[in-house]
């Protein structure tokens, strides 16, 4: 588990490209036969991935000083690879492509496995501190709340699928979902916003090898960008915008943790203020 500290917006405006990438970009998460993760001091989120060729067991490690990974945490998982299973305290859950699961605090034995070693599952996860146990729930995207936004004329026609949110799948603080851009659209989350009550992590995927996304971050009047490629994630502090434009349509998973779970609690940044 890699550790990342928090960064002040006063400092970030002076960062070089390399320093921005070092602090906020998460690369090489999906390694065959491994569980890899990054622990951020920003709201204590853990971002990680498991790619089981043979079964992989999730352990706490020394970084979180716990007897087991979810002793004081909750977790959301979305599979972006081949079919696989997650066994939680003896109960087996099958996850196909884009299926998700919420795993409640107190779940002890968690084992990731793939149905086909030649096409392994790619389990992407976000984990946050928790204060009570909510039920573990298998999540099918077709059963989730979906919202269609934007238009082709503004290059931001997209569908938001909400996996974990109050009233659908209950959690302590984790909110998680997926946004898919329609062909011909490249902009996500534009017009952009911040939300001081929550931080966010994006994972970009369904991108060809030669495609990229310019992910915009920073204060609305002090923007910076990070060039991102397929299956890379980025940490977005609560004071930062989080928007992107790609060379073609793509999909991204978003996960939020923090003060509240109100998806619409955001502070819009008027286009006239962006610079």
Automatic annotation (TrEMBL):
The EC number(s) this enzyme carries: 5.3.1.17
Keywords: Isomerase, Metal-binding, Zinc
GO biological process: D-galacturonate catabolic process; D-glucuronate catabolic process; pectin catabolic process
Reported function: Catalyzes the isomerization of 5-dehydro-4-deoxy-D-glucuronate to 3-deoxy-D-glycero-2,5-hexodiulosonate.
Required cofactor(s): Zn(2+)
The reaction(s) this protein catalyses: 5-dehydro-4-deoxy-D-glucuronate = 3-deoxy-D-glycero-2,5-hexodiulosonate
Annotated cofactor note: Binds 1 zinc ion per subunit.
Pathway: Glycan metabolism; pectin degradation; 2-dehydro-3-deoxy-D-gluconate from pectin: step 4/5
Enzyme type, top EC level: isomerase
Gene Ontology MF annotations: 4-deoxy-L-threo-5-hexosulose-uronate ketol-isomerase activity; zinc ion binding
Domain of life: Bacteria
Family: Belongs to the KduI family.
Segments crossing the lipid bilayer: none
NCBIfam families (UniProt xref): PRK00924.1 (NF002091)
Pfam families assigned: KduI
Protein name: 4-deoxy-L-threo-5-hexosulose-uronate ketol-isomerase
Positions with a binding annotation for Zn(2+): 193, 195, 200, 242
């Amino acid at each position: 588990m890699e550790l990342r500290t928090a960064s002040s917006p006063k400092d970030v405006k002076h960062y070089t490209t390399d320093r921005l990438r070092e602090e906020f970009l998460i690369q090489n998460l999906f390694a065959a036969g491994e569980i890899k993760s990054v622990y951020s001091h920003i709201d204590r989120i853990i971002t990680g991935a498991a790619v089981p060729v043979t079964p992989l067991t999730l352990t706490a490690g020394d970084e979180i000083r716990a007897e087991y990974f979810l002793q004081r945490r909750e977790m959301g998982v979305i599979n972006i690879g081949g079919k696989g299973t997650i066994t939680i305290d003896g109960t087996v859950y099958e996850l196909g492509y884009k299926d998700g699961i919420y795993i409640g605090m107190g779940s002890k034995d968690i084992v990731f496995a793939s149905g086909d070693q030649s096409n392994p599952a790619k389990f992407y996860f976000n984990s946050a501190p928790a204060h009570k146990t909510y039920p573990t729930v298998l999540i099918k995207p077709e059963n989730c709340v979906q919202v269609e936004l934007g238009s082709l004329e503004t290059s931001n026609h997209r569908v938001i699928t909400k996996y974990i949110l109050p009233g659908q799948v209950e959690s302590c603080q984790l909110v998680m979902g997926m946004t898919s851009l329609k062909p011909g659209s490249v902009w996500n989350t534009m017009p952009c916003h911040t939300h001081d009550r929550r931080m966010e992590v994006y994972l970009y995927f369904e991108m060809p090898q030669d495609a990229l996304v310019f992910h915009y971050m920073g204060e609305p009047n002090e923007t910076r960008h990070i060039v991102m490629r397929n299956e890379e994630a980025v940490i977005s502090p609560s004071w930062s915008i989080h928007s992107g434009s790609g060379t073609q349509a793509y999909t991204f998973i978003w996960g939020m943790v923090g003060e509240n779970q109100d998806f619409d609690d955001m502070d819009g940044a008027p286009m006239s203020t962006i610079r």
